[in-house]
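Changelog note: in this version the structure field was regenerated for every chain. One regenerated record is shown below for reference.
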Amino acid sequence: MAIQTRTVEYRDADLVLEAYMAWEDTGSSTRPGVLISHAWSGRGPMEERKAEQLAELGYVGFALDLYGKGVLGASRAENDALMQPLLKDRAALQRRMKLALVQIRKQKEVDFARVAAMGYCFGGLCVLDLARTGTDVLGVASFHGLFRPPGNTAGNKISARVLVMHGWDDPMVKPDQVVALAEELTIMGANWQIHAYGNTVHAFSNPAADDPVHGTVYDADADRRSWQNLQLFLAEIF
């Protein structure tokens, strides 16, 4: 088995975006595809590695791009400046998520009908928004994502199954927001599950996270458990 990779360019109007795709080259049949929505810094090494790990599991990993080709923040201030315009314009965020979905379905290695999405931190919010729009993906999985509703999806029905993995002590997402998300998903008719990890804060799956002051700390147990939950989820929906 050999993992192959390539980049895929696509556009949102004049903005050039670039995804990173990974797949296992044994056999000629198509396989399920999984979009990977990046954290606030942009599509970087962590998301690329996740694409490769998904390829090792027999899927096509497609690390999408929301900011533009080669755009990657290098500090908290830069990351926030990149993220905020899309948090303020959720319709634009949702459009870019749908553009990535179109692109993964164009790839010859991908089974058009079997596509899911997963995301980290800001990317968790992005995949939840993709589900909230009623888009026809089979499932979405959020790792320590943000839950703030977009304000433009009320009345929609969610067809995707939803998996949420959350650090209970995440200072960015308090327990009342977890309950609010559960209520929102129920009203929208989703088949949902929320896994909360005790004594765990934000960014628990990122080995580089080590900032207790801002509540972003890696947790090996939560990282392992959430990845196992993802594998069970993907096996179920595919």
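Spot check on this record: Strands lie at 3-12, 15-24, 31-37, 60-63, 110-120, 139-143, 161-167, 192-197, 210-211, 216-217. The chain has a mean pLDDT of 97.
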